[in-house]
Amino acid sequence: MTLRSAVWKQAASFVAFVALWQLVSAFADSRLLPPPAAVLDRLAAGLVSGDLPLHIGITLARVAVSFTLAMLIGTAVGIALGRSPALDRFFDPWLVLFLNVPALVTIILCYVWFGLVEAAAIAAVAVNKIPNVVVTLREGARALNRDYLEMAQVFRLGPAKTLRHVVLPQLFPFSMAAARSGLALIWKIVLVVELLGRSNGVGFQIHLFFQFFDVASILAYTIAFVAVIQVIELAILQPLERRAAQWRR
Amino acid sequence: MAPVSDLEIDVREKRYPAVGGAAPHLALKDLRITVRHAEFVCVLGASGCGKTTLLNIVAGLDRDFAGRIALPTGPGKTEPVVGYVFQNPRLLPWRTVIENIRLVLNPAQVRSGIVEELLAATGLQDFPQVYPERLSVGMTRRAALARAFAVRPDLLLMDEPFVSLDEPTAHRLRLLLLEIWGRRPTTVLFVTHDTREAVLLADRVILLTPAPGTVAAEVPIDVPRAERADPAILERLRRRLIGERANLLRAL
Question: Of the candidates B175, B224, B239, B205, which has an alpha carbon nearest to the alpha carbon of residue B51?
Fold first, then answer.
């Protein structure tokens, strides 16, 4: 399949989806399922008033901070558990526990314990994601090539150089996997956090529109946000992955 | 200024514990070797006699043994520097040739120009920015050689570095090694199971017994290296080395 025909097929798929939506909404003829044009109208209005970019910006900032925290902490813990069987045996039950605590429970507990503050919101999101990062990076740390570690030891690279040049490049595919699934998970959790305890952001806005049963606005915010996340994937994650793979034959 | 010192190996015993269904294995027993400063010693033995185990002990990678290792120190140095050419080149595939060599050096060494000098000496001056997986096998071995010499080692450990190369390539690399070593003399412990390689390279060949490995014989090779390039002389040296030790070397 050539690139051009692939693009055409994707475009056709998109058009078919919009057409189906139009058809169903015309058939239902209800305020609760607005046609695409109405959603587009709300999108434009939100852009003009500045509300939409403002709230998306706030949500993105929360996503960025909690994502960074979860990746840093999760990577550090994952490497530690992957390299030390004793630590791994000790902390594995904790990990299983945290993996299985529902996101909603973490969020509510964070708000109850730390109050309805920004730090509690960020912490709740990060705590939800950290166990996934740990599990993925632990796999990577277990699979580290011993030959290269021995080389680093004989040539006395020291901890900093070993981490940067020997360990992290081997963990990169695992970090990417964690980042991909992390981004998808985190922005959904951020919306819930905003809905439950923040007075701005996409989640808060959707809560507001829910009070008025304003489905058109809910859909407008959703589409805008999905588009932004897609741009992050295409503009940041994929180029990063290509650059890191250039040494492969 | 500390005087130069010898490499002293004294391994009383190296044992591998039983793992899974495998029985415990006594790899080395009462192995004593002294290598003088700037001497080139080849350790010759059949596969499985503990040659790589020996190098890993000397390199400090394996500390689970009974005995003592004294590494040689160069003039004016306190901490001995070790260079290791592994059986597999062990270049980081995600770093280019020049990055792989710079990685093992400190900033002052990088500025000294030694990297460029060794790239030229190993014929890699046109490939510094190439990733190892895009090089030929022979070229990756040369890069590993350049990296080991770049640290200006007080001790150079070599673990069958030219194995699994075709013979002409291996021969060219042996001569290259001698050439670089001639200009940058250092103490070398070179492990091989190839008798011809041993008599071509070494000042002294140490033969190991099958496991548990211990010194079976020490044979100085006193013919100047320039004459060993002659295949007839090399073959005569090899026969003399094998000589009455045919039993010991049958496995080679």
Answer: B205
